[in-house]
C-alpha cells in the first residue's frame, strides 16, 4: 500500500530499461518502494538495471514484456499482479524513430505508432483493470510535449504521443472515483540515450528532473505534470498559433 504521502511500496515499470523510469525507480526506492518489477524485452541491459536497483535495497524482479505483442499482455502482466498488489504502474516504454527514414519507410513509421500508442493502449487497459480490482493504485503514463502539436520535424512520433496522451486522459476520467489514479507526465526534451546526437531543445531536462516531478505529482495526486513546469505556458502559446506561423518556426 502507499504511504501517507502517496508514495508506493510496490512498482511495476513497463519499459524496464528506460532511463527516465529507472531514475524514477531509484528515487522511489530511496523514499519508500521495496518491491520493483521491471518489464521489458529480455536483455543484458534489463538484468543490469535490475542489479543496480537491488544494490539500493529493493526486491527486484524482471519479466519478459513486448509492447508489440498485445496478445501476450494480459497473461504476462496478470502474472505480476497475481504475485501481490501493485501500488504504481509506470508506463514508460516508447520509440522515437527516425523521422526522415520513417517517412520513406511506412513500416518503420507503423512500428513507432504501434509501440507508442497501440502497445500502450493494450498494456494500459490491462493494468488499469488490475488496479481497479485491487481498489487502489496509480498509473503514471509518460507522454511528451511532442503530442501537444505535431511538428514537421517529428510528426510521426508526435502523433503517436498525441494519441497516447488523449487515451491516458480518457482512462483517468473513466477510473475517477474507483480508487485508481492516472497521471500523465509531459516532459520536453530529455537528455537520454534516445535523444543522443539530436539538437537540444530549449528547456531541456534530465531523467532525474522528471523523476522528481513524478514524485511530487504522486504526492499531490496530480493528473497532469509538465517537465519543466514552464512548458505548460510555452505549449499553450504554441498550440494556439495560426498554422501558417507555426509552420515557419524553427522547431
Could you explain the architecture of this structure?
By secondary structure, the protein is an alpha/beta fold. Helix content is 49%, strand content 16%. The chain has nine helices and seven strands, in the order βαβαβαβααβαβαβαα. It has helices spanning 19-31, 44-54, 70-82, 99-104, 106-134, 155-175, 207-220, 231-239, 243-248, and strands at residues 10-14, 35-40, 59-64, 88-91, 137-142, 180-187, 224-227. A seven-stranded parallel sheet has the order 3-2-1-4-5-6-7, with helices on both faces. α3 (70-82) runs parallel beside α5 (106-134). It is an enzyme of class 1 (oxidoreductase). It holds the Pfam family adh_short. GO terms for molecular function: oxidoreductase activity.
Return the structural class: alpha/beta
Strand order of the largest sheet: 3-2-1-4-5-6-7
| Share of β-strand residues | 15-25%
Distance between the termini: 43 Å
Q: Average pLDDT, to the nearest integer? A: 93
Main pleated-sheet profile? 7 strands, parallel
Question: What best-fitting shape do the alpha-carbon axes yield?
Answer: globular
Percent helix, as a range, is 40-55%
Helix count, per DSSP?
9
Total beta strands: 7
Order of helices and strands: EHEHEHEHHEHEHEHH
The whole-angstrom Rg is: 18 Å
Low-confidence stretches: none
Pfam family, one: adh_short
GO molecular function: oxidoreductase activity
Protein name: Decaprenylphospho-beta-D-erythro-pentofuranosid-2-ulose 2-reductase
Enzyme class: oxidoreductase
Amino acid at each position: 500500500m502507499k504511504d501517507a504521502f502517496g508514495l508506493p511500496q510496490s512498482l511495476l515499470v513497463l519499459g524496464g530499461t528506460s532511463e527516465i523510469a529507472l531514475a524514477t525507480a531509484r528515487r522511489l526506492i530511496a523514499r519508500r518502494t521495496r518491491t520493483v518489477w521491471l518489464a521489458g524485452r529480455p536483455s543484458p541491459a534489463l538484468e543490469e538495471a535490475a542489479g543496480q536497483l537491488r544494490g539500493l535495497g529493493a526486491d527486484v524482479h524482471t519479466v519478459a514484456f513486448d509492447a508489440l505483442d498485445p496478445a501476450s499482455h494480459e497473461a504476462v502482466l496478470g502474472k505480476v499482479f497475481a504475485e501481490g498488489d501493485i501500488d504504481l504502474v509506470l508506463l514508460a516504454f516508447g520509440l522515437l524513430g527516425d523521422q526522415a527514414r520513417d517517412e520513406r519507410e511506412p513500416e518503420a513509421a507503423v512500428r513507432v505508432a504501434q509501440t507508442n500508442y497501440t502497445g500502450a493502449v493494450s498494456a494500459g487497459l490491462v493494468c488499469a483493470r488490475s488496479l481497479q480490482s485491487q481498489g487502489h493504485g496509480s498509473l503514471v503514463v509518460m507522454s511528451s510535449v511532442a503530442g501537444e502539436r505535431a511538428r514537421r520535424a517529428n510528426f510521426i512520433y508526435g502523433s503517436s504521443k498525441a494519441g497516447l496522451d488523449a487515451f491516458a486522459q480518457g482512462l483517468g476520467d473513466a477510473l475517477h472515483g474507483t480508487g485508481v489514479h492516472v497521471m500523465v507526465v509531459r516532459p520536453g526534451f530529455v537528455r537520454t540515450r534516445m535523444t543522443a546526437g539530436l539538437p537540444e531543445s530549449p528547456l531541456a531536462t534530465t531523467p532525474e528532473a522528471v523523476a522528481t516531478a513524478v514524485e511530487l505529482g504522486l504526492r499531490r495526486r496530480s493528473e497532469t505534470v509538465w517537465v519543466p513546469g514552464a512548458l505548460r505556458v510555452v505549449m499553450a502559446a504554441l498550440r494556439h498559433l495560426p498554422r501558417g506561423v507555426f509552420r515557419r518556426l524553427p522547431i
